[in-house]
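Wed. Picked up where I left off yesterday with Tripartite tricarboxylate transporter substrate binding protein. The coffee machine is broken again, so keeping this brief.
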Amino acid sequence: MTARFCTAVLAFNLAVAAFAGGAQAAYPEQPIKIVVPFTPGGATDAVARLLANKLSGSLGQSVIVENRPGASTVIGADAVARAQPDGYTLLLSGSTTYTVLPALKTSLPYDPMHSFEHIAIVAMAPVVLLAQNGLAAHTVKEAATLAKQQSDKGGLMYGTFGPGSAPHLAGEMFAEAVGAKMMPVPYKGSAQLITAMIGGEVALGVDTVSSAAPQVRAGKVRALAVTGEHRVPQLPDVPTFTEAGIPQVSLVGWYALAAPARTPAPVVDTLNRAVAKIMEDPQVRQAVSDLALEPVYLPGKAFQDQIVKELRTFGDVAKRANITLE
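Structure written out below (tokens, as returned):
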């Protein structure tokens, strides 16, 4: 092997390395799509569009939101899990996708830990225990007493978003914590739940703060307690479950951005840095707060830790309450 040949080989290898490095550094070279597995108009959709707008500015490419609802978020999540792992198809969804369904459903087409690259959690979504205005319970403890009194009569009825939903799990946490038997009644969403409570169909309900706060302020229902470590600005007079003496009711929803598994590390790093900077922006934080959500930035490792913890917690609750989804 001649010196000239060795020099040529070395030059070629350096050129290939430089080209590869340049190709990675060029991301993104085309529009990015964020899949939201819900219909337009909800909190998840709003967070996604906020991120899309800011990512477009920071990355220099248009970022669009594509709504792919269905099957309790499974359709959209599976579409992203199967997408080309190149950073141009992302998923913005909530804990329903990443922990609630995987903890309860025997089979899913995706795995919450291994089907995705976990970029960041960007918002926390506390839930609230609601009471019908005519109910003889104005505090959580009074609701607990009433629920225990009703245990031998079939159980106090409370509204949820359906079997295995986050409100259903939170309701079961409450029932278990206070030693009562309660009967979950499924509704298709917040609007239907509130209507049912106003009409007296159910005594209690569990809803997201973002959906329920306007109804509480309008006097249509009463809020008894919220989950999370501190009170929420939208309902400042409503205590947390911990303040009310029932810390076991700890379910807090959240929203997070992910990419398909095997997306190149430099691409994930680029997205992570962009999201971190976006979530430091006071205007972004205020916009998230205005949705009755708590703006946060929890990077990939914290995202994964949250999944592991909640899969265990929700799985235990579901097993004790005999909740299964087929």
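Quick read: Confidence is low (pLDDT under 50) at residues 5-11, 14-24.
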